[in-house]
Amino acid sequence: MLDSIYIGMSGLTAHSKGLQTISNNVANLNTPGFKTTTPRFSDLYYGQRFFGQGPDSARVASGGSGVEYGYGALNFKQGEIRRSDGQLDLGIDGPGFLALLQDGKVRYARTGQFVIDDDGIVREKGSKMELTTLGADGKLANILIDKLRTSSAKPTATVKIEGRLQSNVNPNQPGSGNNPPTGTAPETFSIANVEMYDASGTKIVTTVKITRDLISPPLGNNSARWQVALIDKDNKTIGQGEIRFINSTIEPGADKVAIRVTSGNGMTSEVTLDFANIAYVFGPTVNSDLKVAKTDGYGPGTMSGMRVDDTGALVIDYSNGQKETLGKIAMADFADPQRLIQLGDGVFDASQLPDPAYVASKQGAGTLSSGAIEASNVDLSTEFGRLILIQRGFQASSQVISTANEMIMQLFQMKSGQG
């Protein structure tokens, strides 16, 4: 009967630990990336006894010694991917893990809310571990953005202009071209508010002014020449050149004007006004509609945010519209994640396992989602069902102890009665 009490006590102990596991699952219902643990119980060693002698002897079990809490089996079922406000909140749809660094050691996590610290290192907000990317050799690489907080300026090199340039003088008609009728006024067209950047990265607003030559060296009856000037906001000419047409087509090699721009601090750069895609039309019924189709160059910028693109690459966005791609975030996949060891904060240790192969998003370890986190995979209905079973097991073990105790008391009473 004393054995029964000890067996009952083992049941109380085991089910108490099982209750602790269930309680931990329920408590982490809203913990991002949390994985539930399923309690596992195992029976204790059975003693053995031999009956009979010689070859006819038999070995039989003499009875169990109780139960013990064996271990908690991790459930890596996919949690819901929920949208969040953080650009560096990361979640994985698939079996993989984020590879993190902690004091030179590699740790793993299913999800994370990352921030940039004062040293320019991307760290998980809770565990403070470093996010990593895939290096050129397939190994893990640190992310350092301290020198990438700003974007250098780039002076404008090309301004592409498209549309139609209208003229009342048709070079295809006799007596036109560069010898228009006497008294004809110069034809002019302007494109205002053309923005570009000088060598210092300062934005300047200019006007492109195009004026048809009325008197010029003969180019042929079917030719026309237009003067192009770049005017600053003070109506001063920055630079000028010319473009030429043959019939209604711009002359190859005479469709661009290169102008040298000097910034306020004396730095110079060259900008090319490209007219290769304009059409030359004639007659008063058609209006000029030239416009800037494309311009390059930009001013200095500061980091406005960081995100992960569709390929799993970490990208810095700058206020000047530019971006810098740092590399693809490293992910790992394990054949048997049950062998991982939980460390808290949703982090796992795999130091006892062979190093996994590191891959990027969509390369076998799942798809990485930016601005999202993986929710806990706790299922309350399942946990409450287990809770009832744990409670029944605890009650039954208590009843065994009570019954064994009553039987022992009854024996003592019988002995007292004999006395």
Summarize this structure as a short list of keywords or feature phrases.
419 residues, alpha+beta, 3 domains, five-stranded antiparallel β-sheet, rod-shaped
Could you estimate the helical fraction of the residues in percent?
A: 10-25%
Distance between the termini: 22 Å
Give me the number of helical elements.
Answer: 2
Cα Rg? 40 Å
SSE-based structural type = alpha+beta
Q: Looking at the structure, what is the overall shape?
A: rod-shaped
Biggest pleated-sheet summary: 8 strands, antiparallel
Count of distinct strands: 31
Q: What does the secondary structure layout of this molecule look like, with pairings?
A:
Blueprint: H1 2-27, E1 37-43, E2 47-51, E3 58-63, E4 67-74, E5 81-83, E6 89-93, E7 97-102, E8 105-109, E9 111-116, E10 122-124, E11 130-134, E12 140-142, E13 150-151, E14 158-167, E15 188-197, E16 203-212, E17 223-231, E18 237-246, E19 249-250, E20 256-262, E21 268-282, E22 291-295, E23 301-308, E24 313-318, E25 323-328, E26 331-332, E27 341-344, E28 347-349, E29 358-359, E30 367-370, E31 372-374, H2 380-418
Parallel strand pairs: 14-21
Antiparallel strand pairs: 1-4, 2-3, 5-31, 6-9, 6-30, 7-8, 7-11, 7-26, 8-28, 9-10, 11-12, 13-23, 14-22, 15-16, 16-17, 17-18, 18-19, 20-21, 23-24, 24-25, 26-29, 27-28
Helix pairs in contact: 1-2
Describe this protein's structure.
This protein has 419 residues and is of the alpha+beta class. The protein folds into three domains: 1-51 and 61-76 and 378-417, no CATH class; 84-146 and 328-374, no CATH class; 158-295, no CATH class. The protein is 16% helix and 43% strand. The protein has helices spanning 2-27, 380-418; strands spanning 37-43, 47-51, 58-63, 67-74, 81-83, 89-93, 97-102, 105-109, 111-116, 122-124, 130-134, 140-142, 150-151, 158-167, 188-197, 203-212, 223-231, 237-246, 249-250, 256-262, 268-282, 291-295, 301-308, 313-318, 323-328, 331-332, 341-344, 347-349, 358-359, 367-370, 372-374. Strands 7, 8, 11, 12, 26, 27, 28 and 29 form an eight-stranded antiparallel sheet that branches. A five-stranded antiparallel sheet has the order 15-16-17-18-19, with no helix packed on it. Helix 1 packs antiparallel against helix 2 (380-418). The radius of gyration is 40 Å and the shape is rod-shaped. The two termini are 22 Å apart. Residues 166-185 are annotated as: Disordered. It comes from Lysobacter enzymogenes. Residues 5-35 form the Flagellar basal body rod protein N-terminal domain. Residues 168-185 have a biased composition (Low complexity).
